[in-house]
Automatic annotation (TrEMBL):
InterPro entries: AAA+_ATPase (IPR003593), ATP-dep_Clp_protease_ClpX (IPR050052), ATPase_AAA_core (IPR003959), Clp_ATPase_C (IPR019489), Clp_protease_ATP-bd_su_ClpX (IPR004487), P-loop_NTPase (IPR027417)
Region (Disordered): 35-78, 200-229
Protein name from the UniProt record: AAA+ ATPase domain-containing protein
GO MF assignments: ATP binding; ATP hydrolysis activity; ATP-dependent protein folding chaperone; unfolded protein binding
GO cellular component: mitochondrial matrix
Length: 403
């Protein structure tokens, strides 16, 4: 997983490691928990597709609600979950760090190689149920869509929610209404993180006018493709949540706490590990790598919500060297993109090392991480992109004088 992330994302080694571990453990946990489930009905002679459908139906009407279980000939005296087996609980991840440092890119890149359904959403439009805006349940709807409404698969999926800091409780007076909804959204998300059942109606394919949920036992549904206003019931207890946000201003909270010498510093293994590994290095660890739950609560997340996020990964802000690498190294890097663009007009494009460094320095000044790079490149290359095509120019060289 890390190797794949390395192809597109510069640096952020620790965040990559944490994500890789989270995803790998998620696979194993889901597999282990599945083996704890009671065996379901005999599906011999049924195609895989049919089996999927049966599974989906059995989740629309949970097996416990089915009138009669057919396999009564088996000795069923043993409980569903043998006591000695371990039930693995999930460890949701919170990914924090400055803007333009690769959080969203990490998630997008991760999505490409995941072997489970994945949905990506932005928390900014989320509002409490009943308010204008998006409902948090949309994240589950998207997850279902990503696996063609296979509920069983979706229940093992991964949900990524970006800009999660936007639903923090606000303490300033003039945003009192936002305050309420931010907390309300956190409450709804909390229920999902804890594990709840969510009813999703597939509106996308157009309803047939009659609800199909709870009509009868699962196996009695008519043939034909699913969809058309069908309602799906998704249990979120095995879904892994990865939440991400910039949490602007959070460093200050961390620094203040540490300056006070209050609890937290050295109180957790993570802090100790981080601290000692940096002990001999001249530069201090970034404050965000020392975030404690109390800091997040102070920022405006409700304590129960923070409690459901046992893993915190932080991405670092990118320095000049990192930004130069962002320009040149990833697959699909900006330099590669512009080179390709010029090549389409049979024109060579080259950058001097110092020019790239100047571009990186300009981006650093803008304080938007790697986000500023493209705008700077566009403005540098405007003239050559205007002049060169269709002219005698065969080669464009960008050196530090023009940056
Ligand atoms: N670590 C990185 N490695 C490579 N490219 C990056 C990195 N960080 C940011 N970028 C570039 O900047 C853009 C914005 O980054 P993004 O991941 O959206 O930042 P954020 O951390 O704010 O979510 C990305 O599309 C990518 O081109
Ligand atoms: Mg982002």
């Amino acid at each position: 997983i890390v190797k794949h992330l390395d192809e597109y994302v510069i640096g952020q080694a620790r965040a990559k490691k944490i994500l890789a571990v989270a995803v790998y453990n998620h696979y194993n946990r889901v597999r282990a928990n599945l083996s704890l489930e009671p065996p379901h009905e005999d599906t011999h002679g049924v195609s895989a597709d049919q089996e999927d459908r049966n599974q989906r139906r059995s989740w629309i009407n949970p097996p416990s609600e089915a009138p009669h279980k057919p396999n009564t000939d088996k000795p069923l005296a043993t409980p569903a979950i043998p006591e000695e087996k371990t039930v693995y609980e999930k460890s949701n991840v919170l990914l924090i760090g400055p803007t333009g440092s690769g959080k969203t890119l990490l998630a997008k890149t991760l999505a490409e190689i995941l072997k489970v359904p994945f949905s990506m959403s932005d928390a900014t439009p989320f509002t409490q149920a009943g308010y204008v805006g998006e409902d948090v349940e949309l994240v589950i709807q998207r997850l279902l869509q990503s696996c063609d409404y296979n509920v069983k698969k979706a229940e093992m999926g991964i949900v990524f929610i970006d800009e999660i800091d936007k639903i923090a409780r606000r303490s300033d007076v003039h945003s009192a209404s936002r305050d309420v909804s931010g907390e309300g959204v956190q409450q709804s998300l909390l229920r999902m993180l804890e594990g709840t059942t969510i009813h999703i109606t597939d509106k996308s394919s157009g309803g047939q006018g009659h609800g199909r949920r709870n009509t009868s036992s699962g196996s009695m549904y008519g043939q034909g493709p699913p969809g058309k206003g069908e309602t799906y019931t998704v249990d979120t207890s095995n879904i892994l949540f990865i939440l991400s946000g910039a949490f602007i201003g959070l460093e200050k909270t961390v620094q203040d706490r540490m300056a006070k010498g209050s609890i937290g510093f050295g109180a957790s293994l993570r802090t100790i590990g981080k601290d000692s590994s940096h002990a001999l290095q001249p530069n201090q660890p970034e404050p965000l790598s020392l975030v404690e739950p109390e800091d997040l609560v102070k920022y405006g997340l409700i304590p129960e919500f923070v409690g459901r996020l046992p893993v915190v990964a932080s991405v670092n802000s990118l320095n000049v060297d990192d930004l130069v690498k962002v320009l040149t190294e990833p697959k699909n890097s900006l330099v590669a993109q512009y080179k390709g663009l010029f090549e389409l007009s049979q024109i060579g494009l080259r950058f001097s090392k110092t020019a790239l460094k100047r571009v990186a320095e300009h981006a650093l000044e803008k304080k938007t991480g790697a986000r500023g790079l493209r705008r700077i490149m566009e403005s540098i290359l405007l003239e050559p992109m205007y002049d060169a095509p269709g002219s005698y120019i065969r080669q464009v060289v960008v050196d530090s004088k023009v940056v």
